[in-house]
Amino acid sequence: MSTFPKRTAILVGGGPAPGINSVIGAATIRAILSGSEVIGLKDGFKWIMRGDISHVMTLTIDSISRIHFRGGSHIGISRDNPTKDKKYLENAVSSLLRLNVDQLITIGGDDTAFSAYRIEQVADGRVRVAHVPKTIDNDLDLPEAISTFGFQTARHLGVDIIKNIMTDAKTTSRWYFVVTMGRKAGHLALGIGKSAGTTLTLIPEEFDGKNIKLDQLVDLLVGAIIKRRSYGRSDGVAIIAEGLVELMDPNEFKQIMNIERDEHNNIRLAEINFGEILKGRVQERLTSFNLKSTIVAKNIGYELRCADPIPYDMEYCRDLGFMAAKFLTDGGSGALVSIQDGKFVPLYFKKIIDPKTKRMRIRMVDIESETYHVAHRYMIRLKKEDFADAHELAKYAATAGISLDEFRKQFEYLVQSDVGDLSGDDGVAILEKETNGTNNKSSNVK
User: Fold this and answer.
1) 311 burial class (0-12, 13-18, 19+ CB within 10 angstroms)?
2) Is there a contact between 286 and 135 (Cβ–Cβ < 8 Å)?
3) pLDDT tens-digit series, residues 299-329
4) Whose CB among 13, 32, 131, 367 lies 3.0–4.6 Å from 112's, allowing a Cys bridge?
């Protein structure tokens, strides 16, 4: 009697990310070579959670052998959530059993991972489950320095876009406010901003999970514009993580309260024209100083999600797909697939579920790390050292057309907890001044 599984099913949930097809292809090949039939469940959990088993696709080695070069998902994708109702979970498990599936590979982010966890619980051994972590946000709680797949490609393409925008900004003497994807964490925004060397990057982590007032974000941007202009540059590019919206004080930002939410109760951030809102408020604030700046608001995210994966993600995702199939074939279940130091390590659902939220833990940017400090230090924005140097502060006050005391009164609150402050780092401070537009290395630097 064969010990091989009867049938392996693969599905993709959440939003697209480069590398999905690499996972599908590698998992299919590995499962077939182990003696299993493989099917793709079209559109994630959408159909099977409703008891519909007609939306399936037979996957063969011939049909998937070259899909790893391409972005998107060969078997579709959806955000349908089987955990919303016990009946949906029961339908999903029943559908898998009706399809003669006893191995399930899910590909997705934290919401899909939680769905996989619940499916495995309800199946109670009848269906073994492995989850492959996917998100361009890089926010799943993997071990340090291990990316979620798709992140590296998204950052790579994002930097290429921003490189052109930076050239346009300098050529036309305008500012760009670029809002990037990243629901909870600022990894993608910071990765793009730091790599490209943009003027500044604003991410949720620097606000320590507290409610953010819209005026605070506006002042951060206005302060950067004033500082930059004080050194003769009227252009700049600010990268802004969309996840800042979820930390907005609802009393300050009522425009978003009636926004549509997805099947996992997440705000549809892409539908909020955050960049335009900031643009309008910043221009109003600049007008109060008799300053004018041309600002262009732009979102990037959808351009990144279905890009063809770079070789890093192609190779990484083929490893993940192969190990997901092997893990199930070897009798494993209930784990997220990870590759650590070149070796497969299963991260079991029970150990990585947050006991408070009952969801997968989210990995945030560590703002205490040297990596973040370097990024922050290269940003052109108001910092503690500016308010300790009367000579520098006088420049900014003169640019704003107000007294030094008034400038301090209006902006010093921004740096009371300057998370990127590094004492004694004069070399980087000098380079920052050069970037601002002066080559005078004898400048009074604090």
Assistant:
1) exposed
2) no
3) 998 899 999 999 999 999 999 999 999 999 9
4) 13
Tokens of 133: 């972590």
Q: How confident is the model at residue 442 (pLDDT cuts 50, 70, 90)?
A: very low
Beta carbons of 288 and 226 less than 8 angstroms apart: no
Distance of alpha carbon 240 from alpha carbon 190, whole angstroms: 9
Instruction: Output the CA–CA distances (angstroms, integers) from residue 429 to 202, 290, 295, 380, 382, in the order listed.
Output: 19, 29, 27, 10, 12
Residue 69 contacts by C-beta under 8 Å, 6 or more apart in sequence? 21, 308, 309, 314
Structure pTM? 0.88
Angstrom distance (rounded) from CA 142 to CA 152 = 15
Distances 403 to 92, 288, 393, 409, 416 between C-alpha atoms, Å: 66, 14, 10, 10, 20
Contact 205, 143 (CB under 8 A): no
**167-214 pLDDT, tens digit each:** 999 999 999 999 999 878 999 999 999 999 999 999 999 988 678 889
Q: What share of the chain is helix, strand, coil (3-state, %, to 5)?
A: 45, 15, 40
249 catalytic per annotation: no
Q: Which of 43, 80, 111, 137 is catalytic?
A: 137
